[in-house]
Amino acid sequence: MGAADSLFLHLDVFGNESIAEVGGKVKRRHGAIDLLINNAGIGVFIAFKKQTVKDIEGQIRTNLDGLIKVTRAFLPRVRKAIINIASAAGKTAYEEMSVYCGSKFGVRGFTQTLALESPRLRIFCVNPDMTATRLSGHQGRPPQEVAEVIFRVVSGQVRCRQGGGVDVWEAMG
User: Fold this and answer.
1) Distance of CA 87 to CAs 10, 24, 123, 135, Å?
2) Which pLDDT belongs to residue 2?
3) How many CB atoms lie under 10 A from the CB of residue 61?
4) Which residues of the chain have pLDDT under 70?
5) Any bridge partners for residue 85, and if so which?
6) Which of 70, 83, 121, 147 has a Cα at 20 to 30 A from 159?
7) Rounded to 5 degrees, what are φ and ψ at 141?
8) CB 160 within 8 A of CB 124
9) CA 156, CA 96: separation in Å to the nearest integer?
10) Per-domain residue ranges for the chain?
């Protein structure tokens, strides 16, 4: 996207201290950032009654709680846009994905509300379908296509209402 500089840092979305530490490092190095893309996610794809408390907690803390806390840490420094990666499973319920679906529905609701509260920023969700990553056993859409849609949303090539979502399968045609 033409960045003159980049900074790679490890961030543990479970750790409030990690989020604060990374936020501080970014602030010291760059002051402000143009764009925040929240893209952490995990899923346990078995029936709800078979999920452990640890399974449930991991999905909620990674997919929703972490995203919200990272956004809170960076929001004052974001100049242009926030893109939250939700999911097709945040729009439609799928069997054996109850907690994952719930967390991704939550991402969409958070995004819509944040957009109302932060009208100076462009705030959207990108909703991938099954993407070939570790999460899906490397089955599905190439991750490069999801990245292309994110780029097209950020650059304004794909239009979306504030707080809305862009479905990768539709944007790719």
Assistant:
1) 24, 29, 16, 12
2) 67
3) 18
4) 1-3
5) 126
6) 70
7) -65, 140
8) yes
9) 36
10) 16-171
> How many angstroms separate the Cα of 65 from the Cα of each of 15, 100, 144?
10, 13, 26
Select the CATH number that applies to the domain covering 16-171 from these four: 3.40.50.300, 3.40.50.720, 3.30.230.10, 3.30.750.24.
3.40.50.720
* Options 74, 78, 83, 100, the catalytic residue: 100
- What's the rounded Cα separation, in Å, for the pair 130 and 171? 14
Cα(47)–Cα(57) distance, rounded to whole angstroms? Answer: 15
82: three-class secondary structure by DSSP:
strand
Query: What's the confidence (pLDDT) of residue 53?
Result: 98
The pLDDT tens digits for 71-109 are 999 999 999 999 999 999 999 999 999 999 999 999 999
Residue 100 annotated as catalytic: yes
Contact at 8 Å (CB) between 80 and 28?
Answer: no
